[in-house]
Design brief:
With 244 residues, this protein is α/β, with parallel strands linked by helices. Helix content is 30%, strand content 22%. The chain contains six helices and eight strands. The strands form two sheets. The chain has a six-stranded mixed beta sheet with strand order 1-2-4-3-5-8, with helices on both faces. A two-stranded antiparallel ribbon has the order 6-7. Helix 1 links the parallel strand 1 and strand 2. The chain is elongated, with a radius of gyration of 30 Å.
């Protein structure tokens, strides 16, 4: 048995329940993960192989699943104090998929009942990479294109690690959430649900400036109305003064 592991399994993969599934050590005592989606099967298998920590890169669908068996597994993982941290990642970070992704950290030797929630969807750097075309013959394969990708800087990675280690609470970024709060939220573990957002004071122009604009528009409207009336009077051979 290994101490820790990192896993990036295939997302939302269909699979078949093995024979005598509930007798296998990784599934014994748990609800059966659905055959239509193996995400939680990978999690249970990994947890049966470690003595300490497992880190998963998974689709965000695991955070608020509507499947009853997945919900039951997630509930028990949290009740058993195995989930340590949840980190949501920027969209479009991986070239192979557009599915929103997250990091789940599980630990078998936790000393706290809090779960660290981190929202990194808006925390990234843009890096330009050169990419050679792979198809279309030599004329295309020699072509180099520039592609912008989202990456984390060392500083941003260290900030997330420190948030997990120190259980930080930072507006718009992290929150150390108590077990009872997650239970009251029906075990939904989407970080944005728990992280306080910074309230920015709305900015607007001064009322004096708005009043001046209003007066200017009214004056312009009256001027246009007068011009229309004068034009109509001329066409109807009516004294212009009657329309002023």
């Amino acid at each position: 048995m290994r101490r820790s592991l990192i896993s990036n399994p295939p997302y939302n993969m269909k699979w078949k329940h093995p024979a005598l599934m509930n007798m296998l050590p990784q599934y014994a005592g748990w609800d059966n993960p659905p055959e239509g989606n193996a995400n939680f099967a990978f999690i249970l298998t990994a947890l049966s192989m470690i003595t300490d920590t497992a880190v998963f890169l998974l689709p965000c669908g695991v955070l608020a699943t509507s499947d009853k068996s997945e919900q039951a597994i997630k509930k028990e993982l949290i009740d058993e104090n195995l989930l340590d941290a949840v980190i949501t990642l920027p969209d479009g970070m991986f070239e192979s998929t557009r599915i929103p992704t997250c990091i789940l950290v599980f630990c078998k030797n936790r000393k706290t009942r809090t779960i660290e929630m981190i929202d990194m969807r808006e925390t990234y750097e843009i890096e330009t990479r050169d990419q050679r075309s792979q198809y279309g013959g030599s004329s295309h394969e020699e072509r180099i294109c520039h592609k912008n990708v989202k990456v984390f800087s060392d500083e941003q990675i260290n900030k997330a690690v420190q948030a997990v280690n120190k259980r930080t609470n930072e507006s718009g970024f992290s929150a150390s959430v108590q077990y009872g709060d997650i239970k009251r939220q029906d075990y939904v573990i989407t970080p944005s649900r728990y992280i306080k957002q910074e309230q920015k004071a709305p900015t607007h122009r001064s009322f004096e400036d708005i009043a001046k604009d209003y007066d200017r528009i009214v004056a312009k409207k009256n001027q246009i109305k007068l011009t229309i009336n004068e034009t109509a009077a001329k066409h109807l051979s009516v004294p212009v003064e009657m329309y002023k």
